[in-house]
Request: fold
Amino acid sequence: MLRSLVFGLMLIPLTLVSAANAHGPTRQKVTETVEINAPAAKVWEVIGNFQDLNWHPAVEKTEGEGGNEPDKAKRTLTLKGGGQIHEALVKYNAKAHMMKYEITDVDVKVLPVKNYSSILKVEDEGDGKSKVTWRGAFYRGYMNNNPPPELSDEAAVKAVTGVYRGGLDELKKKLEAAG
Reply:
């Protein structure tokens, strides 16, 4: 009896480890910001049209429909070097300089994420400056346990961080050069 009890207690940590690993992926989050020496209204003029993401250096062209109407607006981003991302606008508030959108379809070889949603927001920082915040939440590209490295949490976070940083840095450069 004592031996059975000891053996049973030894199995508890193994069971807990198995249960912890069995849950699958967890929602990842990325937030990137940039301060731009330009008024918020001017920044919003560049990024506030859901149908135009051509300010992002990775985007070859943007095609869409539905303008800036939540639940109606859709766009397809064709990327330089190949690949497409299909997105839908979920919320849009021009007065608050904010939009929320989600990816409806993307090949994980293009962007290694699933169930992606994002918010792009411009805030007035005073003195002719603004802050742009781009944040997203998503799951890695491989929804089961033991993902290959290219579809892991780390790969997804790195890819989304790169998208945001590349876009925000280019936006800053473009607006500040324009004066």
In short: The chain is about 30% helix and 35% strand. Residues 24 and 145 are 5 Å apart (CA to CA). Helices lie at 2-21, 40-47, 153-178.
